[in-house]
Amino acid sequence: MRKNFYLILLSCSLVSCYTYQVKKQADPAADGKQASQRGVDPAAVTAMQMKNKRGESQNANGQAPAPVNIQQKLAPNKNVKIDVNGKSYKVIVDRWESDSLVAHPVHSPQKTLKFHKNQINADKIAEKRFSQPIADIITVAAYTGIGVAIWYLVR
Description:
Blueprint: H1 2-13, E1 18-22, H2 28-38, H3 42-60, H4 70-73, E2 79-84, E3 87-97, E4 100-105, E5 113-116, E6 126-130, H5 132-154
Helix pairs in contact: 2-3
């Protein structure tokens, strides 16, 4: 019983409610479907989409949409997970020096890393965020464990 208790205590201490999540780009087609489900006038949504499409066609002239600005995504003091040349790093952003990102790993502030903005994969930049579903699972598991412990003591 004592070994099981230590195992449960150890596993609970290793669980975190924070996860690294990639921000998804807004999709205008999906926005229209969601708006119609929420009760927003679909005609207004389609009118907005038409205006956006006209602006994009005049702006792009057959070119792809503008790339995501990495320097805005990686602001100072942000805790992020980046993919550089196929290798993943969990870093805290310190500053930008021209086109190079200066950061340090999450658990070692003495070490400094430098990456050129062309080395960083902009599609795989994940920010550290609070995850409500994981927090709910941990809460239910803790309450269940407390209930089992009380039942075991009473019995």
